[in-house]
Amino acid sequence: MTKNSKPTHRAHIVRNYTDKDGTERSHWTDIGSVWPHGDGKGYDVTLVAFPLDGRLVLRVDEPKPVQQPAEPVA
């Protein structure tokens, strides 16, 4: 990890739950950043929280798609 590099991945806690309608859903909480080692054989992970339950998921750091505003009803 270098001071000028951007992380390549994000770290998340993922907790599964059942909503009031009985549908199983997942809640994702962003908890950190991940940088690959220069030799490509490992990663540095910086966390702002540590999961005590749920699962830890590392995902490629990609921008979220921009949601288009709903068209007004005429």
Question: Could you give a short description of this structure?
Answer:
This protein is mainly beta and 74 residues long. The protein has one domain (9-60).
How would you describe what is shown here?
- The structure is a single chain.
- The protein is built from no helices and four strands.
- With 74 residues, the chain is an all-beta fold.
- The protein has one domain.
- A four-stranded antiparallel beta sheet has the order 3-2-1-4, with no helix packed on it.
- Strand 2 and strand 3 form a beta hairpin.
- The protein is flat and about 55 Å long.
Number of domains: 1
Strand order of the largest sheet: 3-2-1-4
Distance between the termini: 53 Å
The helix content is under 10%
